[in-house]
Design brief:
Layout (H helix, E strand, L loop, with lengths): L8 H14 L3 E3 H19 L8 E4 L2 E4 H8 L7 H10 E3 L3 E4 L10 H14 L4 H8 L3 H4 L10 E3 L21 H21 L1
Antiparallel strand pairs: 1-5, 2-3, 2-6, 4-5
Amino acid sequence: MSISLNFDYKKAAQALNYFAVAEGGRISQLKALKLVYFADRYHLRKYGRPITNDDYWAMKLGPVPSGTRDISLLNSEYLDERELSYAADYISSDGYALISKKPVDNMLFSESDVEALRFSWEVFGQLVRFDIADITHLYPEWNKHKEALEINSRVHMYLEDFLQDPESDVNKCYELSDEMKKERLEQLKELAEVAGLWS
């Protein structure tokens, strides 16, 4: 099953900006994308939805939120004029790092969104970019595609897999009972149905 939601480009841009500000105004693109992934994983597990509603792909260096990656590149080939203009108002890119241009618009985020962003930064923010990429390989939603990535450059990931626990001793990004996992899956399905009505 593949659950698809309506991507929130404004939240994605602000999440990248949030982590750039947290890093002192400049952060590697790779690290920022992994921090967004951990924030999405936490929020989905605790509250039943990701922050960005992004479409995730497994790639060599871990999970990649597709729309958020496009925003981090500030590339007009991937973004429409509205998305590009909004993102470029808050962040710039030198091809390697994202640079914050103005304060984060926290009005876009719910309290739980901010909680998840803060969790991601506090737990994973001190890691350097390749270390944080290595840790993402320990999570089941990426790890299940490990063999496929030996012959493919990317493989589609499933949001419902974010509800599974890693086998290794890493932070689960919020503890879930089996019953809660079922509840979160139902919440995801309901969100997908609503997204389908509006797409």
